[in-house]
Amino acid sequence: MRPRTPVSLYGFLTPKPGHADELRRLLLDLVEPSRGHEGSLQYHLHEQEDGRFFLYEVWRSQEDLDRHNATPLLRACMAELPNHIEGAPEVYFGEMRSPHPAAAV
Fold it and tell me: Where in the numbering of this chain does the ABM domain appear (predicted)?
């Protein structure tokens, strides 16, 4: 069996004019439930000075991220997201190369 490698997901979302408050609420509603999902090592929402939102997630494994992505909460958010953002989200994925102490759990 391949050892688990933490994976990260991060990116920027730009709100449509007049939609920043609704987008903020939508994204903040994900934070605490997502932190409680199995394999969640980090889950953070930042708001940039230019008005964009930055999400940063670290998951114990790709399987944990896949389970998170399949939850009704995240699926509902993804369905609503296009109503509140300009263009496509700027999203990046990667395997974490620096050690993460919680990943061994």
Answer: 7-93
How many CB atoms neighbour CB 17 within 10 A?
7
In 10 A of CB 84, how many CB atoms? 21
Output the domain CATH number for residue 51: 3.30.70.100
The total of structural domains in the chain comes to: 1
Alpha-helical segments (H) within the chain: 20-35, 62-69, 72-80
Asked if residue 41 lies in contact with residue 6, where contact means CB atoms within 8 angstroms, the answer is yes
The model carries a pTM of 0.87
21-53 pLDDT per residue, tens = 999 999 999 999 999 999 999 999 999 999 999
The H or E element that residue 12 is part of is strand 7-13
Q: Is 104 a domain residue?
A: no
Inside any domain, residue 103: no
